[in-house]
Amino acid sequence: MEVHPPSERKTVPTQSEVSRLNDATFSESEFPEFEPGPMLPGLDIEVRNPDIPRGRMRFALFDFDGTISLIRAGWQDVMIPMLVEKLTALNTGEPEEQLHALVEGFVVTLTGKQTIYQMMRLAEEIRKRGGQPEDPVAYKREYLDRLWQRIESRVESLRNGSLDPEQVRVPGSLELVRELAARGVTLYLASGTDIEFVRSEAELAGVAEYFEPHIYGALDNYESFSKKMVIDQILAQNDLHGPELVAFGDGYVEILNVKQAGGIGVGAATEEYTREGINSWKRNRLVQAGADIIVPEFRQWRQLVAYLMAEEPYGGEQHAV
Ligand SMILES: [Mg+2]
Description:
By secondary structure, the protein is an alpha/beta fold. The chain is built from twelve helices and seven strands. It has helices spanning 15-23, 76-88, 96-109, 115-128, 136-159, 173-182, 195-204, 208-211, 227-237, 252-260, 280-289, 301-308; strands at residues 46-47, 59-62, 186-194, 215-218, 245-249, 264-268, 293-295. A seven-stranded mixed sheet has the order 1-7-6-5-2-3-4, with helices on both faces. Strand 6 (264-268), helix 11 (280-289) and strand 7 (293-295) form a beta-alpha-beta unit. Helix 2 (76-88) packs across helix 3 (96-109) and helix 4 packs antiparallel against helix 5. The longest helix is centred in the middle third of the chain and has 24 residues, at 136-159. The protein is globular, with a radius of gyration of 19 Å. The structure holds magnesium ion.
């Protein structure tokens, strides 16, 4: 990752912040608020890093949940209370708000990695408090059961055609994916959700065909998949150099990983319920992870592609915003 000179306004995280992010040791209170960066004129596209080498994209890696699909929207509202419940049951006397902040902190920091990591962290927190944790796999199963109760009707409605897939997509994501595919960009989908769900939900959301055969998700043997592995594989197999790879994601694992590989990171600070506007909480974390560009969703996909491809009116590497 390039080291940028210190500037008055904090635009990129320091190396030590990045390595701490990687360790997932951030607590909620440590997240700084980042001031808005320059916007492309008249658009909702925030350019955090105008120095990225544009016009070289050949491969694109997409996160799935929250970046393309909203089928699992609200999963945090299932996971966080469940994990807080497990810790509260230990009766350590810690105030519930404190446990909530702790859980929220690690759930968020581990978002984008596989679900099992959040459950492993829960087990660790239970052990720290003198409790006897269950197998993290059991916690994961319980979480998926609870989540399923919430999303089952959504999935059923998509299957029987009574729900328009556009309603469960991040706006503009299908158009963006289609445009990149038409331009010959090779597309990869990588999600921390179990692979069988990623496949079926990518079908339901109408995007699977653009990513085949490059659809990756969590495996039972969790050590044999990570977004970093997918990125390393893309770079190695195609003899790529950083800026030929662009990652699109709403979580900071994918942004952090692509930045560490020298690629370009487009952060989507999507508001999952309203499907529009910036979720400032996500935005801060994406900026922290080193996102070069921040968008609220992909409604302005045409301009975003033109900017990434260094086309008019954004031609030339030196184009100033
Ligand atoms: Mg996501």
